[in-house]
Amino acid sequence: MTSGPHPLSGAAPETPAGLARFNASQDSAALAALHEVCASSAWGSKLLAQRPYATAEALFDASDAAMAELTAEDLAEAMAGHPPIGRPKPGDPTSSREQSGMSGASEELKAEMLELNLSYQDTFGHVFLICATGRTGEQMRDAVRERIGNSPEQEREIVRAELGKINRIRLTRLVEEESA
Questions:
Q1: Which listed site, 44, 55, 65, 141, has its alpha carbon 20 to 30 Å from 170?
Q2: Contact indicator for 15, 49 with CB cutoff of 8 Å
Q3: pLDDT in tens, 32-52
Q4: What's the pTM value of the predicted model, to 2 decimals?
C-alpha cells in the first residue's frame, strides 16, 4: 500500500520514523509493541496482519475497525492491561503519564477514587476505564460517579470507545518515536 503524491509538493508524504520502523520490524517485535498499546491479543493480531501501513491515519483506522470487532472477552483482556485510576503501575511511565491528573489530587479525592473504583469493579467485574489523558482527578471522579449507574451493555460500549481513544494516543506515540 503506497500513498500518492502530496497535493502541494507532488512528492509522497514522508512516513514517520516510528511507523516505518513498526512496518519493518519482525512480527514478534511489532506484536510486542502493539501489546504495549493494547493488551487485547485479537486487536494486536488484526493490526499486525494489515502491515505495512502507508500512513499513521491508516494505522489509526485499522485500530478503530479492530476495536469495533472486539468481543466482550477481548475487551476484558484489553481492560486487564490497565491499572485502576489513581494507582498507576509502579515503574510504568505510560500509566503514570496518562493518569497524571490524579498525581496532584488530595488524599480525600484519592480515597474517594479508590472507593468508587472498588464499587465500579463490584458492579461491572472490571476496572473503571477512561481515557485519563488531560483529565483532572475531579473529572475522572465525576465520570465514574456518572457511569456506575449504566447498564453493563452501555458500559461495555463506553469502555470500547475509551479504549479506542487510549489506543490512538498510544499509537501516535509509537509512530512518532524518533528511535527505538
A1: 141
A2: no
A3: 999 999 999 999 999 999 999
A4: 0.84
